[in-house]
Write a structure and sequence with these properties.
The chain is an alpha/beta fold. The protein has 8 helices and 10 strands.
Length: 264
């Protein structure tokens, strides 16, 4: 019996990807662990905090691109650590210069150090400027459906609502808001932040997200390389479950086998 697994491709900025898992490059013990974990994850897109990681702006220091070459991975520079639109735009311009005209960026404008919650007002400002300057903007945002809609209308190529606060590992705290965003979305929706373990990633995919981005869940695991592999399988399982369509929930039991025709 053939198994039908029809699915639309995962496309960002005109490029198709096989893996729906995007991973960060920070918080690992060393470069070697970073390399091994990302290889184990199967990810094709890796995000890099330009303000914290050397991708060529600091000559003479270890360069992340030496272990994660751009001819093998799509480098997704992000604006982590930026707290206003001006700073975020400047960081994206630097990344484009360092990566030879690379336009794909992850916009992240934070409100404060304690929560790392997105500052949506500054995010909207930065998004408008970056889109006008020809950047392909994937944007970290709150799980507010209205803000997600506005970011799409500005011209962002993907919205990335948080599942939980960055680095908390709390999982998907408000699946209902995510469902509203997904129902309205005309661009890819990726869960970003809050994932703690494989089941969280699976739930995000079962809801219908195009992909999931994570860092802490892998890097802070007791065995990061093993967790990276677990996440790879979790993403695939969640996507297949979404395509298959879950059974309806019922209040009472329903026999697995029919009761009619029992041998007496």
């Amino acid at each position: 019996m053939s198994i039908v697994r029809s699915d639309k491709p995962f496309v960002l900025a005109g490029r198709t990807y096989q893996s729906r898992l995007l991973v960060g490059t920070g918080k690992y013990r060393d470069m070697e662990e970073t390399r091994l974990a990302i290889e184990a994850s199967g990810a094709e897109i890796v995000t890099v905090a330009v303000r914290r990681t050397n991708i060529g702006q600091n000559p003479g220091e270890p360069n992340l691109l030496d272990i994660l070459p751009p001819d093998r991975y799509t480098i997704l520079p992000n604006t982590a650590g930026c707290f206003d639109a001006i700073e975020a735009v400047r960081t994206c311009r630097l990344a484009r210069e360092l990566l030879d005209g690379h336009n794909l960026v992850k916009l992240e404008v934070l409100a404060d150090q304690k929560t790392l919650f997105p500052n949506v007002i500054e995010t909207l400002k930065a998004a408008q400027t970056l889109v006008k300057e020809g950047f392909d903007v994937m944007v970290y945002t709150s799980d507010d459906p209205i803000i997600a809609r506005q970011l799409a209308e500005i011209g962002c190529i993907a919205v990335m609502p948080l599942a939980g606060l960055i680095g908390t590992g709390l999982g998907i705290c408000n699946p209902y808001n995510l469902q509203i965003i997904l129902e309205e979305a005309k661009i890819p929706v990726l869960v970003d932040a809050g994932v703690g373990t494989a089941s969280d990633a699976t739930i995000a995919m079962e809801l219908g997200c195009e992909a999931v981005l994570m860092n802490s869940a892998i890097a802070h695991a007791q065995q990061p390389i093993l967790m990276a592999e677990a996440m790879k399988h979790a993403i695939v399982a969640g996507r297949l479950a979404y395509l298959a369509g879950r059974m309806p929930k019922k209040l009472y039991a329903s026999a697995s086998s029919p009761l009619d025709g029992l041998i007496k």
